[in-house]
Every structure is written in C-alpha cells, then in structure tokens.
C-alpha cells in the first residue's frame, strides 16, 4: 500500500505546488502565504488546509519526523530581470527563512523554485548559497532549469527548480543512491493529467472574485495578474512530485 505523503507549502501563492499535490492525494500539512488575494483563492480551493501567514513566525520543529516534502517558490523579485536585482540586499530575499524551516522539520525532500536570474545574480553566489545551505544539512542537491513551455504552456517561463534529497534516503527495493534518485527525474516517464485540467484551474483564478470593482483598493484584474505572474505552473510541479512519490514508495 502506498504511503500518504505529507507536504509543507511555503510561499504558496495561489497553490501551484498544492494543486499538483492534491491531484496526487498528498496531505498538505499547512500553507504559508501573506498576500490577501492569494489567501482568498487558497481559502476557496483548499478550505481544510491550515493557513500560516508570515514565514518568519512559523515554528516548524513540531513537524520534525512527520513531513516528507517541503516546497516553496521563495520570492523572485530580488533576482527578476523586471526588478532592481538587489539579491540578498533586497528585504524580500527570504531563502534564509525557508532554509530555517527546512532545518527545523528536516523533510526527506525539498523543492525550491525561482526565476532564472537566481543563477546569474551576483555571479551565481546566491544560487550557490542555496545549494550549499542544503548540502550543509546533509542533502544531495540537483538543480534543473525547466520552462513551463516544456509542459504545454503558452509561454516559455524558464524557472530554476532546486531539488534536494536528504542524505541516507534509500530505495528499500534496490538501495538506490541519491544520484540514481535524481536520474529518475530525467528518465521516469509518467503520464501527466490532461493539460486542460490545469489550464482550467489557472483560468478559474481570472473569474474568482465576485466583485467587479475593487479588491483591497486595487482593481481586481491587477490582483489576478500579479498572482498568476508569480504562480508555480502546476504541470511542472506535478512532474516533480509524482517522481518523488515514485521514489518514496518504490
């Protein structure tokens, strides 16, 4: 019998990782998000999942030993080409907060996502920090650059996905090494759900608000555009999560 996988969702946004996890039947222990519009969407789509606000106020120690996966697309504004690219000097640089949660609860798997600018910012120093931080906690780390277009999106949307597996995690069947685990990400062939399923979920955000006027003082189309612009594409997330599920249950 397959194990029910337990996940913590950080910087949840409108729930890209969470939709993929829910599709697989995973248990989401909690979601962390502060944006008002995103919280409206999460409360509608995931009403039974506990919500936490500011990540800096989360104590994840109580989840230690009871969480398999921590995911999070930590804020991209410090590295985005559309911004000032201030990197670690930007107050929105929240990788240290995500790293603290990982240290406290020590999941078997971690997935961090960000824009491609994470690699080039400060000549790669910040990217190396993320990988080194995880490695210092005993994780084997493998980064991937995957465009949403690779999963039938209408836009290219290149993103960096940093996947980390806790050292000592082995397949019960074949005692696979971490390197062989990551090889599975490149070789395992899984049939994704019909792309229209995920597309319809994205489209539903456009029509979510019942208000035609103003939400929180901002025209509601701006809220939706902002949320969609920062969203994790659930089709790519699904590919990551279903491979982890395979490796956990093999």
From TrEMBL:
Which UniProt keywords are present, listed alphabetically? Methyltransferase, Restriction system, S-adenosyl-L-methionine, Transferase
Q: Key word Protein biosynthesis present in the record?
A: no
Which InterPro entries does the protein's record reference? C5-MTase, C5_DNA_meth_AS, C5_MeTfrase, SAM-dependent_MTases_sf
Single biological process term from Gene Ontology: DNA restriction-modification system
GO molecular function list: DNA (cytosine-5-)-methyltransferase activity
Reaction catalysed? a 2'-deoxycytidine in DNA + S-adenosyl-L-methionine = a 5-methyl-2'-deoxycytidine in DNA + S-adenosyl-L-homocysteine + H(+)
Question: Which superkingdom, per the lineage?
Answer: Bacteria
- As recorded in UniProt, its EC number(s) are 2.1.1.37
Q: Residues in the active site?
A: 76
Family, similarity comment: Belongs to the class I-like SAM-binding methyltransferase superfamily. C5-methyltransferase family.
Protein name per its UniProtKB record: Cytosine-specific methyltransferase
